[in-house]
Amino acid sequence: GTGLKVVTLNVYAGNSVTLTSDLIVNELCSLMSGTLMLSGNDLTINGNVAASGNGSVSSTATSNVTINTSGGTTGTINFSGAAIVNNLTVNVGTDNQAKIGGNLKVNGALQLTSGALNCNNTTLTINGTISGSGTLSGTNTTDLLCTTVGGIATPIKFAAGGQLVHNLNVNVGSGNSCGLGSDLTVNGTLALNNGSNCNMNG
């Protein structure tokens, strides 16, 4: 089939491996150490992410990241620096989670097809659209920024047990809004910038 069965990144901290084409991982992605540089290529994980490891993923605005596994991921995909992706797709099945960490900005589509995107220790910026029946899951170490010009039409839903963020920042333009489709507790700062609104549609 297409793609690789197992991919292990273990090049020690401060070192990196740069992709020269799209990468599909069908069984296990193990980010032990170092940085996987997507360099404009796409990353698709059809299997699991190893529970241990200190490695990370570096991405720019032309890369797409897809987490497409029926059982969720055990480990966390940690993004390094101020990572950006074009589209982020999560399709892990109902009641399962895909876990990310670090600082990630989604410029295109945040496609939450199924399951929850766990954002523990994450600053997630939604700068495009959001769709699907999936959810986000936050903690007191989650910061969420909504910066889509013109607003975000689809209400953002948080999974039961994960209806919490530290800071929520909405900056979508005067008179525009970002909607919530579930309960959410903001333990830090709720910032509605430049005339932006936050609609409670849940």
**Largest sheet at a glance?**
8 strands, parallel
Reading the helices and strands in chain order gives: EEEEEEEEEEEEEEEEEEEEEEEE
Mean pLDDT: 96
Number of strands: 24
Query: Approximately how much beta-strand content do the residues carry?
Result: over 45%
Question: What does this 3D model show about the protein?
Answer:
- The relative contact order is 0.10.
- The strands form five sheets. Strands 1, 3, 5, 6, 8, 10, 12 and 15 form an eight-stranded parallel sheet that branches.
- The chain has 202 residues and is mostly beta strands.
How would you concisely characterize the structure shown here?
With 202 residues, the chain is mostly beta strands.
Search tags:
202 residues, mainly beta, eight-stranded parallel β-sheet, globular
SSE diagram, text form:
Elements: E1 4-10, E2 16-18, E3 23-33, E4 35-37, E5 43-45, E6 48-49, E7 56-58, E8 65-67, E9 76-85, E10 88-91, E11 97-106, E12 109-114, E13 116-118, E14 122-126, E15 129-131, E16 135-137, E17 142-146, E18 152-156, E19 164-165, E20 167-170, E21 177-180, E22 185-186, E23 190-192, E24 197-200
